[in-house]
Structures are given as structure tokens and as C-alpha cells.
Predict the 3D structure of the following.
Amino acid sequence: MTPAATEAVFQLRDVSKVYRSGDGVEVHALRGVNLDLYRGELVVLLGPSGSGKSTLLNILGGLDTPTSGQVIYLDHNLTEASDRDLTRFRREHVGFVFQFYNLIPSLTALENVQLVTEIAERPMDARELLGMVGLQDRLNNFPGQLSGGEQQRVAIARAVAKRPDVLLCDEPTGALDVVTGRVVLDVLAKVNRELGTTTAVITHNAAIAGMADRVVRISSGQIAEIHRNEKRVSPAELEW
């Protein structure tokens, strides 16, 4: 599948983000970024710490807004959206997975996922989802009874429970060892493949790039390179 054969879900045009510190110093997190993300693809946004990856992901997810430029999601101009509109956009269209799992410790794995299914308009079945991520035998375990990789898989199940069009993942393997990280990446690839969810994974780990349809390298707030993999590598084959 090539970009020409499918629909651009996101279009970023000349997007810049400037933060001002307490003493008035300007920090340019993004500088004139132009990027399209296409329906159903898996993209790895690759770059070192401080390169602007998380800022870009937050803008895509409606958690932040650019200082200048345009962000278009399908036919919605997110740069002109109100706070209420952005909240609705996040609730209806976007799932988030972060480095730290943010599970509620007093709720079981099943209950953590059900929190989303109870408020979503067209939710998936929580038990089915936990089975999809290989946790069918851990439904009634609390987060404290689960390994880091298991907690991250619960977090992924929770993120996709509302059937988001877009899944945004911020260093999802950053707190995990290599073996566990491969398992989590395999779950993300499975979600992308079986549900057709447009998936963006940000990482500083270059080895992960092999699993993507496209790799977007970010440096000093700018896109340094966009590379298309001819063939995606299975997460089980990744080495780092």
C-alpha cells in the first residue's frame, strides 16, 4: 500500500512550536514541520531525547497546539478547534499509550479496560481485547500483580477499547527489557494489522524502525528524513 493509494489522516503544514521559559527564553521544539500520516499505516518517529518527538505527538493527539502552522485531521482543522472540540477529538478518535502505564492500581486489568468501554460510543469487548493482547488469564489481577510488560499490554488494550482511528505511542518500550519490549511491539503491530488503526510510535531506539511502514527521523525540531521500508520486520526479529 502506498500513500497515493490511501487517505491522509493527518496533514501537518509548516507546524512550529515555541515554548517560553520563566526568564523569557524561547525554546523552539518544532520548526516548520510538514508531514502526512496515512490511514492504516504504522509510522515510527525516531530521534534523540529533546528532538521534538513528544511535542509532535502531543500536537497530533490534540494535547497541545502549534504556535504556527496547520494541523488537519481528515476534514477538521485542529489549529482552529476550541478546547472543547479538541477534547471531543481526543475522546472519539485517539488512543494514547505512554512509557508509564497510568493504570488505576485499585482496579483489576479487566476493570481498567472497562473504564473506557463504559463511556465509549462503540466500544470493543474488554475481555476480547485482553485476550487479543495475551492476558486472558490475567483479567482479575491488579496492576501490582502484573509485570511491566503485562501492565503495558493492559494499557494498550485500554487505549484501543474505544476503537480509535489513531493510536499514538510515546516510548511504549522505554521502561521495558528487550524481550518484554518485543512482546509489547508485537501487540502494537497486531492492533495495527487486525484493526487497521493508524499507529505512530515515537522512540529514540533506532532498532524499532524496522517494524514500520515508514520511519520519520526528527532532529532539532525538524524532519531530517522520511524513509519507507520495503518490508516490515516482525518485532520478534528486532535486536537492540
